[in-house]
Design a protein that fits this description.
This protein is of the alpha+beta class. Helices cover 34% and strands 24% of the residues. It has 2 domains: 256 residues, Zn peptidases (Aminopeptidase); 120 residues, Alpha-Beta Plaits (2-Layer Sandwich).
Length: 389
Amino acid sequence: MTQNPPLDRDFLVSTCRDLVQINSINPVLVPGAPGEAEVAAYVAECLTAMGLEVTRHEPESGRVSVVGRLPGTGDAGGRSLMLNAHLDTVGVEGMKDPFSGDVREGRLYGRGAYDMKGSLAACIAAAKAVAESGIPLRGDLVVAAVADEEYGSLGTSDLVTHTLTDAAIVTEPTALEICLAHKGYVWLRVDTLGRAAHGSRFQEGIDANMRMGRVLHALEGLERELRAREPHPLVGPPSLHAALLEGGTGLSTYAAQCRLQIERRTVPGEDEAQVLSEVQALLDGLCSDDPGFQAHLESFFVRPPFEVARDAVVVRTLADAAAAVLGKAPRFVGDSPWMDSALLAEAGVETVVFGPGGIGAHADEEWVDVESMERCAAVLAATAVTYCA
């Protein structure tokens, strides 16, 4: 039977407000932004005051993650659970009062409230509820507040080298639905080669930009074919788009090189090798049609897709706890954005995604629903006492 440790709602709301009021904009996205150091110090203080064992990790200077551990008894059969949330946010351009933390009509406003400081506050409040309940746990409960999810996931990439648990709940906002899968992506570069020459000497120049036009035409056909494939039942079909294009040095000069950067969104079951093979086949076809055609393909950043089985132990435990707290069975869904869950799963941690509701990720107005945040924290606490028992 699911146990529901009493939750301190005032603590939850005040913690979320405090987190939102601390500027933790990712400095890679906004040069000169402060990053996670200050908000990490706040989280560390909270977790320490609750009696958790706290460590700080700094994979790059100023990019700080915090791990708090509520130790279990270590008795045989005890399983460890991680509650994972990121500390960084995107920028605030266009927002009227981005760090207010104001609560109005059941909504807490500010940059990161939804993505995902409301989730982090729920993790902290859940850990507090478990710690104060006196319910014995055989396995450890871990709260991981990580850096840099909004850009390169430095925090979770580092986390999996030193802190692994049997299972994890990544608390990205899901409106209290259980997310079992999300897409990944591969970033690609294609360079077409030409020959520079004065614009008046067509017999000497080869236009790399026009050659890239052939690549774009071929990619458009591939994109249509990707969308026509049988969709993944939770996240739909794969896709690609031509994101950035750069070529040429002047109006009166034939372009010697053109570069196209592509984002290819992948679904569970796809990998980098497959993506490269499909695009390389297009380029090989263009070379076959014109032996003078020259192009080079490479991938330069990869994040895998994610999927967990519906009957996984952590999923079943979470679903039972959610049903007990919410009074109804939660929905199982997939999502399109990439999340740190893929890195944890890749490291062998049984992982699922579950978080509160709200709106405004990366938008001019952002808020988290306070009641949803409270229910999320209650579900996390109930899941922890069952899973780690």
